[in-house]
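lol forgot to send this yesterday, sorry. C-alpha cells for the thing we talked abt
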C-alpha cells in the first residue's frame, strides 16, 4: 500500500511590522488641517462643512482640530480662505517680460485652473451670503481683487495710475470673476481655453476703448501693443474686429 505523503502546511505569515509614526510639527499639523479644510470647502458650501468632516478628512480627532483652531469652524474657514487667497494672488504674478497678452494668458490659466479645482467653494465664496461670512472674509476677498489689479498695473508699467485706468483694470477683474461664476453655473462650458481667450479679448477691448479718451491709458496701450505680434491674441482680435468695424464706416 502506497502511503500518500502530505505536504506540510505553510508557516503562518509573520505579523506586519507596525507603521512608523512620525510626530508632526505644529506647522506641519496646521498645514495638514488647512489642506483638508480647503479640499472640503472647495467642493461644499462652507455651511455644509463641519469640524467633524475636517477631522475625518485629516484622519485626526475633533479635539485635535479644536486644539489648533480654538475658534472652531469660523477660525478654520478664515484661515483656509487666507490660504486660498495667497494662492490666488500668485496667479497674476508673472515676470515682466514679453507680450502683455501672453503674460495675462499664463495668469488666467492659473486662475481658471484654481476655479476649476475649487468650483463649489469658489462659487460660494464670491456669491457671498454664507453663514460664516464676516467683514474679515469680505476683506480677504477684496484683497485678492486689489492684488490682481496691482499686478496688472505693474505689467502696464504705470506706477501712479489715474482713475480711468484703475477703473478699467478693476472692471476687467470683476468681469473675470463674473465669467468664472457663470462658467461654473453653465457646466464649465465653453472649454476653459476658449474662456481664457475670450477674457483676453475683453481686456484688449477695454484697454483700447479707454485709451480713446484717456491719455495715460493711451500711452500704456501703445507700449503694450508695441510688444504684440500679428499671430498673437491682439493681432488675431484685430483681424476679427476690423471687418466688423468697417461695416460701420458710415458712422465716421
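and heres what i got for the seq, position by position
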Amino acid at each position: 500500500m502506497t502511503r500518500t505523503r502530505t505536504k506540510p502546511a505553510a508557516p503562518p505569515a509573520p505579523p506586519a511590522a507596525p507603521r512608523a509614526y512620525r510626530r508632526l510639527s505644529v506647522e506641519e499639523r496646521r498645514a495638514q488641517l488647512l489642506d483638508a479644510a480647503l479640499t472640503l470647502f472647495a467642493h461644499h458650501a462652507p455651511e455644509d462643512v463641519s469640524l467633524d468632516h475636517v477631522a475625518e478628512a485629516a484622519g485626526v480627532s475633533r479635539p485635535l482640530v479644536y486644539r489648533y483652531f480654538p475658534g472652531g469652524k469660523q477660525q478654520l474657514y478664515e484661515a483656509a480662505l487666507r490660504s486660498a487667497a495667497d494662492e490666488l494672488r500668485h496667479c497674476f504674478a508673472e515676470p515682466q517680460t514679453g507680450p502683455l497678452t501672453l503674460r495675462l494668458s499664463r495668469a488666467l490659466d492659473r486662475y481658471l485652473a484654481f476655479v476649476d479645482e475649487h468650483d463649489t467653494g469658489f462659487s460660494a465664496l464670491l456669491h457671498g451670503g454664507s453663514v460664516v461670512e464676516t467683514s474679515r472674509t469680505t476683506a480677504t476677498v477684496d484683497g485678492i481683487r486689489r492684488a490682481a489689479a496691482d499686478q496688472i498695473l505693474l505689467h502696464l508699467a504705470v506706477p501712479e495710475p489715474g482713475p480711468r485706468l484703475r477703473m478699467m483694470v478693476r472692471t476687467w477683474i470683476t468681469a473675470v470673476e463674473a465669467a468664472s461664476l457663470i462658467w461654473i453655473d453653465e457646466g464649465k462650458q465653453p472649454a476653459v481655453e476658449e474662456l481664457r481667450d475670450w477674457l483676453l479679448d475683453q481686456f484688449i477691448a477695454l484697454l483700447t476703448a479707454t485709451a480713446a479718451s484717456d491719455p495715460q491709458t493711451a500711452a500704456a496701450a501703445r507700449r503694450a501693443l508695441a510688444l504684440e505680434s500679428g499671430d498673437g491674441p491682439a493681432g488675431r482680435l484685430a483681424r476679427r474686429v476690423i471687418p466688423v468695424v468697417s461695416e460701420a464706416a458710415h458712422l465716421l
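Residues 1-21 have pLDDT under 50 and may be disordered. anyway ping me if u want another try
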